[in-house]
TrEMBL record:
Full-sequence portion shown in this chain: 1 to 266 of 368
Protein name stated in the entry: chorismate mutase
Organism taxonomic ancestry: Bacteria, Pseudomonadati, Bacteroidota, Cytophagia, Cytophagales
Entry EC no(s): 5.4.99.5
One record GO biological process: chorismate metabolic process
Organism expressing this protein natively: Fulvivirga marina
Root EC class: isomerase
The entry's keywords: Transferase
GO function terms (MF aspect): chorismate mutase activity; transferase activity
Length: 266
């Protein structure tokens, strides 16, 4: 089967022309105040293009915080209005997708636990049929490039041309320095096959720890990836999910200013 993606060359949904595009915000929306204060501080850096916040959280074990649900969509929209930034959230099924669309979320992403399941991805694709909204697809939990491409194709075949892929690393049984092991050959191969597809790196979920964020972000830029998704929180240690890997907007600002961006080789 010939693999082909029909990608829009208009990337203005992702950035105003700067590279890398920066997507940031909390792992999870917790309260309206938290979402708005984080968004305001991020916007004040002048370096953030898109806000992110998880509303429905796919947790490994039950009885953990599973997200604030639909109510949080109002908070992220309010944060977008306050800052002028587009807002994004994760959707994992048709219901999430319909609610996110109803509230006017600007950009959707599909998480690693959803990309693994073609039925779920197809359900989202069907809910998006005829809707013109940008969608970012994270790699599946397992290192299966074809499964990642298949998810991108399903969304693309629903008519979504503003697409991006997010490399967030892969689950591993082995204990390593990473929470999710990056496989840089995957974004390299995606870029080779689909030169128009923007590729974003998520150093937060790769590292699982804020200490490694700068190094991983720099590696992504050295590989000419187009954007970074980095989780941020006003008080990272007390975050309701992914506390160890989040940084304050001030730390994010410093981290971004230390990155070296070379011009692309092609
Ligand atoms: C997230 O972005 O907070 C998230 C749950 O990510 P992933 O799907 O990469 O685990
Ligand atoms: Mn997270």
């Amino acid at each position: 089967m010939k693999k082909q993606l029909d990608i829009s060359s208009d990337l203005s949904w992702l950035s105003k022309g700067n590279r890398p595009a920066i997507i940031s915000g909390p792992c999870s929306a917790e309260t309206e105040e938290q979402v708005i204060s984080t968004a305001t501080s991020l916007a004040a850096t002048g370096k953030v293009d898109v806000l992110r916040a998880g509303i429905w959280k796919p947790r490994t074990r039950p009885n953990s915080f599973e997200g604030v649900g639909e109510e949080g969509l109002k908070w992220i929209k309010a944060a977008g209005k306050e800052t002028g930034l587009p807002v994004s959230t994760e959707v994992a099924n048709a219901k999430h997708t319909e609610e996110a669309l109803k509230h006017g979320v600007d950009i959707l992403w599909i998480g690693a636990r959803t990309t693994v399941n073609p039925f779920s991805v197809q359900e989202i694709a069907d809910a998006l049929n005829g809707v013109d909204i940008p969608v970012m697809v994270k790699n599946p939990l397992n290192p299966d490039l074809e499964l990642w491409i298949g998810a991108l194709e399903r969304i693309n075949q629903a008519g979504i041309k503003r697409l991006a892929a997010i490399h967030r690393g892969f689950s591993s049984f082995e204990k390593t320095s990473y929470r999710n092991v990056p496989k840089w050959e995957f974004p390299i191969e995606l870029k080779r096959r689909f030169p128009e597809l923007p590729i974003i790196c998520d150093p937060s979920h790769i590292s699982g720890n804020r200490d490694l964020l700068g190094m991983i972000a720099q590696k992504a830029l050295d590989l000419e990836m187009d954007g970074l998704m980095i989780e941020s929180h006003m008080s990272p240690d007390s975050a309701w999910s992914d506390a160890k890997q989040q940084v304050t907007p001030a730390t994010l600002n410093r981290l971004l200013s230390e990155l070296i961006v070379r011009s692309k080789t092609t």
